[in-house]
């Protein structure tokens, strides 16, 4: 009933093992998830990350979703991780989210990553600054 409309979802992500962050978001997904089915048809996606550990919000005991807290939005294309990167994606995901090792294998899990095209930093009530992907 919402075919063709944007659809949000919460997915586990990792940008690398704990001591080797890359800035590239990796996801462990199943084709049984409607979000993944949609991404395989139209790979454009956005990802917003709140300032969960920043000094301002933590020091002032402010909810990370409060507009005064910084958030980073990444947009780009979601792609299946190529075979030569699967081992890294596996280390990245399993080191940060060990519970996924126990997920049922019958769900045909695989790895996707976001090829980031745009980055925006919102630092205060709607003030948005673009950041070069190279940075």
Automatic annotation (TrEMBL):
<feature type="domain" description="CREG-like beta-barrel">
    <location>
        <begin position="2"/>
        <end position="135"/>
    </location>
</feature>
<dbReference type="InterPro" id="IPR055343">
    <property type="entry name" value="CREG_beta-barrel"/>
</dbReference>
<keyword id="KW-0964">Secreted</keyword>
<keyword id="KW-0732">Signal</keyword>
<dbReference type="GO" id="GO:0005615">
    <property type="term" value="C:extracellular space"/>
</dbReference>
<dbReference type="InterPro" id="IPR012349">
    <property type="entry name" value="Split_barrel_FMN-bd"/>
</dbReference>
<dbReference type="GO" id="GO:0005737">
    <property type="term" value="C:cytoplasm"/>
</dbReference>
<protein>
    <submittedName>
        <fullName>CREG2 protein</fullName>
    </submittedName>
</protein>
<keyword id="KW-0325">Glycoprotein</keyword>
<dbReference type="Pfam" id="PF13883">
    <property type="entry name" value="CREG_beta-barrel"/>
</dbReference>
<comment type="similarity">
    <text>Belongs to the CREG family.</text>
</comment>
<dbReference type="GO" id="GO:0012505">
    <property type="term" value="C:endomembrane system"/>
</dbReference>
